[in-house]
Write a structure and sequence with these properties.
- The chain is an all-alpha fold.
- The chain has 2 domains: 125 residues, no CATH class; 77 residues, no CATH class.
- The protein is 68% helix and 1% strand.
- The chain is built from 15 helices and 2 strands.
- The radius of gyration is 36 Å and the shape is elongated.
Length: 287
């Protein structure tokens, strides 16, 4: 480890040295000042540094990175024993004085049991996503970054919702919001609502809400109107039709459903109780 640290220090020294060389070739200019107007400059900053990069056999982006880090860390402010990577991350601290102080205050490393810089420690300080998340907030941020793709997010969501203990740990308001999002599709909402209203306690509580009760009544009325219109279209076409015994039985069952639903609706209007009893529920399901 001692030899490795010495090698890292040599690498940092070389990177800073190359950054300093790039600064000598092209000092930092104000934003937008790739080449000063009205001067006799033969090359833009990028052109000059591209030639330098080509001469030493590295990518232009690498030279630009070294140059910028060197500009943020003058020779007197660089910290011995701290990698060039950490210097580059901490270079994001905008205030110079704060930057100089920060690099001397290394965070505690629980693995090594001492204060020392790591790339994750530097990233935490400047608010970047760490490579190895530890806290809940860091893990949430990592998951959010990994699920930006809708297909990945859909699969992860389905997997999580399949864990009852996970869903149960969410606050009630969050669970309600989740269900609302999942039932935006009318077909899905209809299926879920039908299942929920077959739970007597749920149905009783839901029907205590005036708006919900009015909506259910309106839906029943609309269904009745639709049935009336359907009968008005169907009955004339049934004249002179001959039915088999199976067809007659099918029609009888359908009429029984309509009669049972009408009787239940009449009783519900009189009593204010809109919970389906077991017998009617079985009838409507065809049991």
């Amino acid at each position: 480890m001692t030899e490795a640290r010495q090698l890292v220090a040599q690498v940092a020294k070389a990177q800073f040295g190359l950054g300093d060389k790039a600064l000598e070739i092209e000092p930092m200019r104000p934003v937008g000042g790739s080449v000063a107007k009205g001067t006799d400059d033969l090359f833009t900053v990028e052109e000059s540094l591209q030639m330098f990069a080509d001469d030493i056999g590295v990518a232009l982006s690498t030279v630009m990175d070294w140059r910028w880090v060197s500009s943020r860390w003058p020779a007197g402010q660089r910290e011995d024993g701290v990698s060039h990577t950490v210097h580059r991350i901490l270079a994001l601290i905008p205030d110079e004085a704060e930057r100089w102080v920060a690099i001397k205050d290394a965070p505690f490393n629980s693995r090594s049991g001492k204060r020392q810089w790591t790339s994750d420690g530097a990233k935490r300080l400047v608010g970047q996503q760490v490579d190895r998340p530890v806290t809940v907030e860091e893990k949430v941020r990592a998951v959010r970054d990994l699920t930006r793709d809708d297909e990945v997010a859909a699969k992860i969501t389905a997997s999580l919702l399949g864990r009852p203990e996970t869903a149960a740990s969410l606050p009630a308001a969050d669970r309600v919001r989740m269900v609302q999002e999942l039932t935006r599709d009318d077909e899905v909402a209809s299926s879920v609502t039908s299942q929920l209203l077959q739970r007597p306690r749920v149905a009783r509580q839901a029907m205590r809400n005036d708006d919900t009760r009015f909506t259910v009544n309106r839906a029943q009325f609309d269904n009745s109107e639709e049935t009336r219109e359907t009968l008005g279209w169907l009955v004339p076409r049934m004249r002179d039709q001959e039915f088999t015994e199976d067809e007659r039985e099918t029609i009888r069952r359908a009429i029984a459903k309509v009669r049972g639903a009408a009787d239940w609706l009449e009783a519900a209007i009189d009593t204010g109780q809109f919970t389906l009893d077991e017998q009617l529920a079985q009838l409507l399901k065809g049991d």
